[in-house]
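Encode chain A's predicted structure.
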Amino acid sequence: MEHVARTGANVPAQEHHRFTASPSQTDPPQLRPSGSPAMEIRHLGTAYGGWSFAEDERFYGSTIISCGLGEDASFDVEFAARYHAKVILVDPTPRAIEHYEQIRQRMGKPRQTSYVEGGQQPISAYDLSTLTADSLYLVPKAIWTHDGTAKFFAPANPVFVSHSLTGINGRDSHITVECTTMDRLLREIGIRQPVLVKLNIEGVASRVLLDMFRKHIYPRQILVEFEEERKTSLSQCLMRFYLALRLWQHDYRLVVQEHNQYCYMKQNSEAATTVSLRPAA
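Encoded structure for chain A:
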């Protein structure tokens, strides 16, 4: 479902937040922006699977990378429809692959039911009336820092769909999946610098982002969920600090925070104001 907010004077007080409070040791990188011109913040998708980001005319007709599909493709479907874009989905999870195949079978058909709460959306809830088979393309691999195969650990609760390369879910049960890197994926689809990359990849987002920066991959916007940042180990703290440094060095600023989801935008001559979409206390 689409929601729009605007930074600057038009933003309600509870939504306009500059992160002046000191972050806790377990918080993800919070990079303070400079300046405060108006910026349109848009939310696409459900409360569970949706994401917020800064509106950008470069999204129209673009190709974006969306890592982590699960069983809620609401963001991907709505993004592809709104911007006439192509969304490259990356997820080797068996249930995610099945969900994608069911979506493909309904391409071109309108929504018949409403979204439901939680992360298991009925296929009939997606409005696919303006999409074609080329709008969504699934790469059934795990995005990682190197090619090859790896263990993909199942969630602790079998009701959930998300697997993890790091085993943060706390289970030994796993499948073996093929992995690819962001640079290899971009070469295969013929893109040098994507306008947007989404990383919802259960505990490995920091490492994938650092690998992208080492290989000079700088999306205009990065949507990322930091599951691993809730840990307090020394290695996680050091990685968090190093990622914050690298984001700052490459001119990324935090423009949206919604719970544990973050949107970083690469700055050129523009400045940005951070918007928090968390409910007011």
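The chain is about 20% helix and 25% strand.
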